[in-house]
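Much of our argument rests on the idea that a fold can be written as discrete symbols. Part of our work consisted of pairing the sequence of a single chain with a tokenised description of its backbone. No coordinates are needed to read the tokens, only the vocabulary itself. The record that follows shows the chain in one-letter code together with its fold in token form.
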Amino acid sequence: GQIVYSIAEETERGASVGNIAKDLGIEAATLSARKFRMITGSSKQYFNINASTGALSVNEPIDREQLCELKSVCLLNYELVLENPLELYRMEFKVLDINDNSPSFPLSEYHINMPEFLSPGARFALPNAQDLDEGANSVQNYTLSPDEHFYLEMQIRGDGSKYPELVLKKALDREQQATHRLVLTAKDGGNPPKSGDVPVIVTVLDTNDNAPEFEHSVYRASILENSPSGTLVVQVHATDLDEGPNGEVRYSFSNTTSADLQRMFSIHPHTGEVTVNGVLAVQRPLLEMLIEARDNGAFGMSSTAKLLVEITDVNNHGPEITITSLSSPIPEDAAPGTVIALLSILDKDPGENGKVTCQISENLPFQLKPSLQNYYSLVTSELLDRELISEYNITITATDLGSPPLTTQKTVWVQISDVNDNPPIFSADAFDVFVEENNPLGAFLYQVSASDPDIGENGRVSYMLRNSTVAGSALTSFLSMNLANGSIYAKRAFDFEQLRSFHFQVEAKDNGSPALSAATTVNVYISDQNDNAPAILYPTSQNGSVAVEVVPRLADEDYLVTKVVADDEDNAQNAWLSYHLTHSSDSTLFQLSPHTGELRTTRSMRSTDFLKHKVVVVVRDHGDPPLSSTVTVGILLADTLPQALPDFDDSGEPPPLLNTTNIYLIVSLACVSFIFAAFIFFLAIIRL
């Protein structure tokens, strides 16, 4: 008997499919006694039968796209064998498609070159999206992001397939906009629908306004599966209306053609001849490739045509390698002898041609052990270390005993999962950080870095400040740290005069279980800025009054009037002080030492010197920029200290000898004297 079931792909494990006992008219209680078993050529056991009730349920979710690839109908065939008496029932499971795959494009982005002088209506082929689903769940329509220069139209090839075309709606101007960025979206017909998009970048060019045109939009060819390299498949031809290099056409496979097909076939760039380039190791009877014709202009234009190649089968069967069970990833601390995979190797040829030997490379930490008939176990042969090798591509080679022998290879990708066996490692045992005082709040100081060769949470490193104190305060009042990247920031402004250096520890901890950690020391050195002006300690003034020094009236030359004493809290050259005399009521009477600040007389005092003098002294440091302070000193010439000090608020300079009144008196006196002399002279002449 035979029975057919239908089941949707991705049906969860344990879901009921039917009751095999009821459907076949078998008593469920006899299943165990009759030693029932299910036989299938599939690599996985997708269904289970309950021996007590005969209920048929899902044992492993089915991925229709992985199981049947591009087949329109996906079937799984099982055989139910019962003993006492021996009976054989055939079961056929039709796997129904669901919309579990989104449309996708072969490339991450597409580039189109367009001359700026193309007229509206020019067309450019856009890439087709691929959707592993079938029927209504496959790609149904395309949309294009809004743009004033372009719109989207669907075209139909000679074989009935649809493809999108980009149509120029408005003339382009490269000088106004050289690049247009569009988004092409493909939607399937599922419920709910899924979509995928790809950027389409249009570059506006200045030259070459005609693209090559193929004689046919679709080329068809048929070749034998074992055709030798060099066999001619088809010759394509395209013409270009341009002249010179712009009209010379070169042929190549489009980027959307898979790399496997580009390795199997080659195309002559000048003649357009497509030939076999290697072994046609394909399982599909129909191959689809896109051929691009591009001219040799400075900015080549291109067009595409579809090539459909039908592969005619020949009678040759190689060994078939089926992975019935695979454990991946496996932990890196797995003990030697751990089973990774169970393989089934079968050759459909009879006799010696169907006998198979199997092996893997000897330089791998794995080995194959024969199990049941036609079954092998892939086990570890030594300890693994993910930090050295994180994954293995194990190539299993199966060779039959035919003449000539046929060989099949299958690669098993085994990932090694991480175990938290490595603590974080800092790039240095200690880090020195130099920061200027008066830094802004939140200023970035330094970034420590630690690496962990583990991956995932085991290798994700976080940072923290270890509890400590600085100058009697908690470290967290001075600093903060970004837990994710180890950046250290200042929470307050540092003052070199208060704190010149300090150190603390940073701990790096991974997120494994249990977590591993490491610590390093960070030394912070605060450098000085010229932020303190010199402070004048002597002479001092109170309430804004002038400091007064008394000097004997007849003091000798180089007499010490006073010494200006100043201090600067800064360090190094910022605290180097110099003294300058910026003002003096008598510049010939006093001098100031620039290094010691001593104010001395330049000559002996005279009785004609004024009794009051005033000088202004500037004390300047050597910072960049320099800071300064001034002090005004009043000097009184007196042999004894007077009971009341005079007022030094005036300039201390002598009054001018000639003022306006004195000039008038002198002129008047001169006039009277001249008149008197003239009168005497006149009397003398008369008497004579």
